[in-house]
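Z., the sequence and structure:
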Amino acid sequence: MDSIEPTPLGTGAPRPPEGAPASGRNVLIVTAHPEPRSLNASLAGFAAAELRAAGHEVRVSDLYAMKWKAGVDADDFPAHDPAERLDVMAVSGRATREGRLAADIAAEQEKLLWADAVILQFPLWWFSVPAVLKGWIDRVFTYDFGYGGKDMPRYGDGTLAGRRAMLSLTVGAREDAFSERGIHGPLNDVLFPLQHGLLHYTGMEVLQPFAVWHAIGLGDEEYRAARQAYRERLRTLFTAPPIPFRPLHGGDYTRSLRLRPGREEPGTGGFALHLRPAR
């Protein structure tokens, strides 16, 4: 796999082919891997090139290349008085409302507002995202941007409503290990905090994740197959049906945020309770 050179991030994208839509959409790719020759870097570059060839505008936030600071601290809020207790929720909300966030945070928020779709590209490390991507989430989704305010909690009706989101990830294990009876549990259950608790919460329509399985043993043939499968997913980025998460304001939940009895199909449990049943 290391012998396959990744598509350069943000450069060298092919021109839109004849017949491509005259006005495409805006797509933000946020990628997190320390090795620029990694499978994740290759997938991010491939996605950027494919989307640009389809007529879309693409921006890439390569967090390791950007030397992204992962930890939330007082430097994120330049106007914060150091004599004042750092109440992150209150201070970040004030800085967001006043436009006084650190420049790197403000730039990423602007990218999210610009985007019509967001792709997070990362390796699954310890059943979650790398620390630098978690730090991007912690720092960028501030109070009064990602959460907080009079309309919260949101779940389907937040700051980023109307946008689409997809997780693209590499997994060391084989797919069977993340199946319904697999020892790790279903992949969508593992990703529930990201897909439901972050992306759906802030209003985005969340697509089924794209996973490259057994990444540690991926050969050239498997890599080509993965690229072709990813190409098909990217073609339907704006048309594929999203995961049918229940919206908060659809009448399914009580004022205490509990699902009302009888809203699920008999026998449904766990995270599946928060999916609208097929009709």
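Strands lie at 26-31, 57-62, 117-123, 164-170, 205-206, 210-212. Confidence is low (pLDDT under 50) at residues 1-22.

Let me know what you think.
H.
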